Inverse folding.
């Protein structure tokens, strides 16, 4: 029989080692192409000046060092949880308080995740008020940051507890193939969340307002009409309340679809550049990326519940991880869900390159759509240059690092693809 704890420890070591190697490769590559006293790389000239490029290099280094320390700390916490049986101890302690009923087990799961998430809070604070602050990106106050943390916890309780109660009910009532019913219910819940997120949840954290009447709105709506994208809702989000970073995104589907532009993006770009950004976002819709992502989400959810179903039938795994199976009885769904929540990243990490490759393919397709919609590529190129420049993006990542993590092609790659079309 496999030593489950040993397998997890090996996976923790392997994932952390690969993570640190990739960070090291990226930093070394950055030193070679953008080190001190080196001339501005040819591929970057015309995109960033010397000062901005130097700041982007410093920002990339700072984020890499922070990520490396954070990864080592996360690995240390997982090792502690494994070696000292903290997960079964916490689960059983909370179960003694809340019981094994629908509400009790739901509360146990949410509270367990809350406890396991506490060690990351100082890192979250440091990232916001030290790292992002140092490069002029943080606009959040401590009060706002604390408010966000509290709202996040309350949302987890308000949404998570009823959701888990429904899932536990399905497990207990639907027999051998409960996991198929649980998959169908959970995926339907995800679809509903996609619809209600921009309408009810996002406004709890950010102010969303319809774009004011004027030339910008008229031109963006006219672009939507030309592209066959019927949507009268273009929202402006006060992203500047928290960060100097800028972005635009597409959310929802059907008559609930929304285009959201950060106020920082509107401040940074000309109208024609914002048209190009919107054309890119419409491209995701017109190229069928939304249903493709939904299908992938459904497939991932199916695998997750199939795995939980298998875990519940493998009591030896719970015993190996120091759970008192006799005390838990038939209520193994929540322990299985906890195991997957804490250690699932050890497995999903290795699928990052495939997901990133697929995402980059979608970005190229959306860029191509935007070029055709605009009738030229220059407006999108200048918009992308501003976006990458204002966000101090790393323009020259190590190819392996980029292949593993980057959901978007680099700016050089995107401009090259636009020029070839």
């Amino acid at each position: 029989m496999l030593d489950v704890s040993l397998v997890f420890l090996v996976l923790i070591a392997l994932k952390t080692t690969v993570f640190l190697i990739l960070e090291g490769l990226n930093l070394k590559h950055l030193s070679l192409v953008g080190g001190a006293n080196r001339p501005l790389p040819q591929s970057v000239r015309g995109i960033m000046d010397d000062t901005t490029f130097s700041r982007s290099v410093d920002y990339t280094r700072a984020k890499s060092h922070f990520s490396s320390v954070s990864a080592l700390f996360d690995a240390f916490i997982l090792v502690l949880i494994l070696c000292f049986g903290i997960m079964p101890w916490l689960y059983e302690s909370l179960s003694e308080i809340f019981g094994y009923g629908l509400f009790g087990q739901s509360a146990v799961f949410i509270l367990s995740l809350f406890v396991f998430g506490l060690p990351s809070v100082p890192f979250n604070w440091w990232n916001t008020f030290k790292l992002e602050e140092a490069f002029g990106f943080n606009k959040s106050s401590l009060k706002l940051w604390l408010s966000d943390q509290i709202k996040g916890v309350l949302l987890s309780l308000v949404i998570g507890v009823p959701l888990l109660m429904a899932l536990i009910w399905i497990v207990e009532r639907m027999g051998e193939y409960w996991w198929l019913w649980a998959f169908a219910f959970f995926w339907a819940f995800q679809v509903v969340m996609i619809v209600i997120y921009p309408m009810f949840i996002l406004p709890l954290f950010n102010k969303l307002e319809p774009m004011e009447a004027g030339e910008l709105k008229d031109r963006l709506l006219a672009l939507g009409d030309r592209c066959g994208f019927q949507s009268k809702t273009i929202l402006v989000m006060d992203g500047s309340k928290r960060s100097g970073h800028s972005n635009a995104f597409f959310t929802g589907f059907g008559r609930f679809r929304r285009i959201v532009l950060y106020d920082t993006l509107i401040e940074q770009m000309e109208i024609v550049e914002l048209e190009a950004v919107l054309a890119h976002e419409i491209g995701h819709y017109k190229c069928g990326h939304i249903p493709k992502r939904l299908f992938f989400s459904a497939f991932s959810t199916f695998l997750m519940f199939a795995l939980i179903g298998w875990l519940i039938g493998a009591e030896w795994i719970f015993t190996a991880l120091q759970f008192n199976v006799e005390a838990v009885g038939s209520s193994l769904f929540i322990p299985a869900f906890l195991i997957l929540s804490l250690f699932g990243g050890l497995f999903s990490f290795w699928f990052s390159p495939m997901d990133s490759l697929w995402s980059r393919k979608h970005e190229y397709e959306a860029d191509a759509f935007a070029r055709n919609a605009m009738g030229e590529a220059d407006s999108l190129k200048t918009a992308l240059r501003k976006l990458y420049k204002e966000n101090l993006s790393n323009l020259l990542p190590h190819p392996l690092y980029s292949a593993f993590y980057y959901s978007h092609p680099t700016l050089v790659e995107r401009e090259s693809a636009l020029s070839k079309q």
User: Anything to note?
Assistant: Strands lie at 208-210, 234-237, 248-251, 258-262. The chain is about 70% helix and 5% strand. The longest helix spans residues 50-83.
